[in-house]
Design brief:
The protein has 246 residues and is mainly α. 71% of the residues lie in helices and 6% in strands. The relative contact order is 0.12.
């Protein structure tokens, strides 16, 4: 029979793989932003919230805070790099107003994280106390991270369009939360269970919304120039522009 530790490690490895897919799933969206040199209607909220959550989980996974959390540490370390790249792209192509708001949020996050690290290392002297303090913060900010797509879901409902809520991102987000919730439940870790349970619920809601509003999403067209067919009544020639639906 597989022990709880082995089962947890297996689920954790699967969670790492799915999480890596989740982190890379916005790449097509950011490629679109880079090509257009415009963030369009995409929101930075989920990426700022994810960055804060990963900082806390990375700190939580350190041996000085919560020993034997290598899988939590590695995947969040990788995500910090990826989310940082996404945020840099957003800052480059966002409007001036959005750019300054993002920089303000990042400054607050940096100051908050520095205060947390200093406070925990100086004020808490056991793994249990450190795990509890950082764990509670992980629950709070993990919940915020998973709730951040609510702004996008509101836009989907308002516009009856899923254009700015990519299906693959919603699907992988749901699977990622489900997997890490299972990881936390094997050897019950309430600090990882709660935010991932919320992530599972919000991810499922996104998938339901996607299925409901997919057909009402306007299809993009592209202009194709066709030569004019001359008739005996024509006096000029030129090109006719028509729209072909994708």
């Amino acid at each position: 029979m597989v022990s709880a530790d082995v089962a947890r490690n297996i689920v954790g490895i699967i969670g790492n793989v799915i999480s890596f897919g989740l982190f890379l799933s916005p790449v097509p969206m950011f490629w679109r932003i880079c090509k257009a040199k415009n963030v369009e209607e995409f929101k930075p909220d989920p990426y700022l919230a994810t960055l804060m959550n990963c900082l806390l989980l990375f700190f939580y996974g350190l041996p000085i805070v919560h020993p034997n959390s290598t899988l939590v540490l590695t995947i969040n370390g990788i995500d910090l790099v990826i989310e940082g790249a996404y945020i840099i792209i957003f800052i480059i192509y966002a409007t001036k107003n959005t750019r300054w708001k993002m920089l303000g949020v990042l400054a607050i996050q940096a100051a908050f994280m520095a205060a947390v690290v200093a406070g925990v290392l100086v004020g808490a002297h056991t793994h249990e106390k450190r795990s509890m303090i950082v764990g509670i913060l992980c629950v709070i900010f993990g919940s915020i991270m998973y709730a951040s797509p609510l702004t996008i879901m509101g836009k989907v409902i308002g516009t009856k369009s899923v254009e700015y809520m990519p299906f693959f991102l919603s699907l992988v987000n749901f699977l990622n939360s489900l997997c890490w919730m299972g990881y936390a439940l094997i050897k019950f870790d309430i600090y990882i269970t709660i935010p991932n349970a919320l992530g599972t619920i919000f991810g499922l809601i996104q998938l339901i919304l996607y299925g409901y509003y997919y057909r009402s999403t306007p299809k993009k067209g592209k202009n194709v120039e066709l030569p004019t067919v001359l008739t005996k009544n024509a006096v000029t020639s030129g090109n006719v522009s028509v729209t072909i639906e994708k």
